[in-house]
Design goal:
Keywords: Signal. By secondary structure, the protein is α+β, with helices and mostly antiparallel strands. It has 5 helices and 4 strands. 37% of the residues lie in helices and 13% in strands.
Length: 154
């Protein structure tokens, strides 16, 4: 990928009702980074569910059926393969949703994770979501993926 490192977040998560250990066979990402992504999403989703997540004006409407997420190693593997092949188009990911962020130079995943998560998540507050929760503004694409499309029903 030249001088760039891609950070790709796919639907690494599945709905979970019990704590699970990661047990992924991928040395490219540590359990610390996995925890960073997962904890960030669950905290942000909890704030949406409670109706305390900031919107451009006020707060987002409370969510119904906003479940706690757990990590999915198979989806992590797909994302890792995608990044290793320098994928620039997310269209080949089937039913998974994803966001991409490119960084120049060498950045470690544990440094990139909080930066990209905040970048994607903050779109909701920057652009603002309508009260009907219809995401018809393309500027909300990354926010929609982070907040809604990371759920794969079992």
């Amino acid at each position: 990928m030249g001088g760039f490192q891609a950070v790709l977040t796919l639907a690494f998560f599945t709905i979970s009702y019990a704590a699970e250990s990661f047990n992924c066979n991928n040395d490219a990402i540590s359990d610390t980074v996995r925890s960073t992504y997962l904890d960030y999403h669950n905290k942000a989703r909890r704030n949406v569910a409670k109706g305390i997540e900031p919107n451009k004006t006020g707060t987002l409407n409370p969510a119904k059926n906003m479940y706690k997420l757990s990590w999915n190693c198979e989806m992590e593997k797909k994302a890792q393969e995608y990044v290793q092949n320098c994928g620039a188009n997310l269209g080949n990911l089937g039913t998974y949703a994803g966001n991409i962020a490119n960084f120049g130079g060498a950045i470690k995943p544990n440094e990139a994770a909080p930066v990209v998560l905040q970048m994607w998540w903050s779109k909701g507050q920057q652009v603002g979501l309508p009260s009907d929760n219809v995401y018809n503004d393309r500027a909300l694409y990354s926010f929609g993926n982070v907040s809604l499309l990371f759920v794969q029903l079992k």
